[in-house]
């Protein structure tokens, strides 16, 4: 998986969270973005391992990270953003969950 793609997904995730008024996970998402930006394309380098650890801690905890859903806007926009939110989190967990 290309790190540029993951960076774009994390950025989009943050934008959706902001649309919903959720700023609680900015520091965690920013930390993952920083680690990915500093790392190589090799998924087994130290920065990728650290980025995965940060993401898994954030997403796997009872912090509410996975409980954020879009409730603002009209019904069509809510549905579209919630579908996209689910897609992004599924992709990110699938990638970061494999890194040890």
In short:
The chain has 100 residues and is mainly α.
Write structural notes for this entry.
It is a single chain. With 100 residues, this protein is mostly helical. The protein has one domain (3-96). It has helices at residues 3-19, 26-38, 46-60, 75-96. Helix 1 packs antiparallel against helix 2, helix 2 runs antiparallel to helix 3 and helix 3 (46-60) packs across helix 4 (75-96). The radius of gyration is 13 Å and the shape is elongated.
Key words describing this protein structure:
67% helix; 100 residues
Mean pLDDT: 91
User: What assembly state would you assign to the polypeptide chains in this entry?
Assistant: single chain
Counting DSSP E segments of at least 2 residues, the number of strands comes to 0
| Coarse structural class | mainly alpha
Provide the low-confidence segments as ranges.
none
Order of helices and strands: HHHH
Q: Helical stretch count?
A: 4
User: What is Rg?
Assistant: 13 Å
**Main sheet overview:** none
| Count of all domains | 1
**Helix coverage percent of residues?**
55-70%
Q: Bin the strand percentage.
A: under 5%
End-to-end Cα distance: 15 Å
Inertia-based shape: elongated
Protein topology:
Layout lengths: L2 H17 L6 H13 L7 H15 L14 H22 L4
Helix pairs in contact: 1-2, 1-4, 2-3, 3-4
């Amino acid at each position: 998986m290309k790190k540029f793609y993951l960076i774009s997904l994390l950025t989009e995730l943050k934008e959706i969270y902001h649309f919903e008024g959720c700023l609680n996970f900015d520091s965690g998402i920013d930390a993952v973005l920083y680690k990915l930006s500093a790392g190589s394309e090799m998924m087994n380098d130290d920065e990728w391992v650290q980025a995965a650890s940060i993401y898994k801690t954030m997403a796997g905890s009872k912090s509410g990270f996975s409980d954020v859903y879009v409730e603002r806007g009209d019904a069509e926009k809510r549905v579209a953003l919630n579908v996209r939110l689910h897609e992004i989190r599924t992709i990110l967990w699938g990638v970061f969950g494999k890194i040890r």
